[in-house]
Structures are given as structure tokens and as C-alpha cells.
Amino acid sequence: MASVARRAGAVAIDWLISWIIAAFINMFTNALGDTATLTLLVWVVIGIIGGWLFARTPGMAVLRLGVARVDVAGARVGLWRAAVRTLLTMFVLPAAMVDVDGRGMHDRGTGTAVIRA
Do residues 65 and 7 touch, judged by C-beta distance below 8 A? Predict the structure, then answer.
């Protein structure tokens, strides 16, 4: 299981990547909102696609973390779990509240866990 500090570091890396992409997009258009709004949207897209296709986001990959299902060993996380997990993480509180196993409430709700890979 990954520590809270490592998971927070992965989110910070993902946020920095999202901010850079959003700032680049805003250089050419502001039709999608300002940089702060677009940063959040890019972060959500990265979280959902990364969790769904790769079972990790870029920040998790840098810190050698991954997302795994706890109910079926070796099964893929899947689109709906990745989407719900990312959207709950966006609200911070479910991710910050951890149980005795070190899993956030967003992981508990989606049947996943962040592991050291």
C-alpha cells in the first residue's frame, strides 16, 4: 500500500502537468475558461484516462505507484471505477480521509487501492 505522502506527491505532480497543459491551451484560446478552470478539467481527464487505460496517472508512474482492484486480483480498474475515483479525489476530503489500511474513502467506495508498483 502506498503512503498518504506518496499519493499526495503523485497528485501534486499530476496537478503541475495539468497546469502546464492548461496554461499552454490558454495561450491560444480562453473558450474553455481561465487557467484554473482548465487545469481542473485537464486533471480530471488525465485521472480518468490514466486510471482506466494504465492503472496509474503520470504522477503515480513517476513515484512508482499504481491503482489496483481489491475484489478481483489482476483485473483492470475499468472506466467507471477510474471516473468515480477521480471525481471523488477532486473533492479532496474523501482522498484525505484514510482508514486503518491506509486506503482513502474514494478507494474504499470504488473497490480500489493505491499500491507501490
Answer: yes
